[in-house]
Amino acid sequence: MRFHKEGYTSLALVLLFFFIVSAFAHYYEAGSLFKGLIYILFGMLFLVVLYFFRSPTRIIKQDPSQIYAPSDGTIASIDEIVDENNLEHSLFKISITISALNVRLTRAPISGTAFTNSLEFHGKFRQSIKSNNEIDVVVEHDGNFWKGPVFYNQKMVNQGDVIGSIKFGSSVDLYFPATAVLVAKKGDTIRAGETMLAKI
Fold this sequence. Notes:
By secondary structure, this protein is of the alpha+beta class. Helix content is 20%, strand content 40%. The chain has an 8-stranded antiparallel sheet with strand order 11-7-8-9-13-5-4-15, with no helix packed on it. A 3-stranded antiparallel sheet has the order 3-16-14, with no helix packed on it. Strands 6-12-10 form a 3-stranded antiparallel sheet, with no helix packed on it.
């Protein structure tokens, strides 16, 4: 288990605020009960930040014939939609709900070349991955500029690589060609880089 780099700022703010409050408590000679409550409160907050930004080690079994889950969470819906870029083709859209208890990292569902769209797209942020056999997979996050996801600029990614992190968004959508064979179903609890969603 490791601590993800996106949490360093939050951790530093918690520690800074703790030292400021503690300094005021000592300066004004607050009672031991009040000081004890401060230590307990900030200790719990410190542990919450550590848990929220945890980065567990996962053993990824790469398989080019499979599409893995891009994030931890629960599958809220699976829909077949028309490809906006090619009206003759259909896509599967898998919507994943992420709770506060889930790991906040996204991983590459397939291996290939990554293209990051850093601009907001209808309140969404997108990252596309094109595999060597020309299969396109799109990972889409909700959010906005101040609390949106962070994508890591990588030209080539391997299946299961960490490709981004989710700050406070609560959902991830995955798009891939409807020619794939679905394995997952609505209501499934999934883990990024480990749960197979479809076969190519």
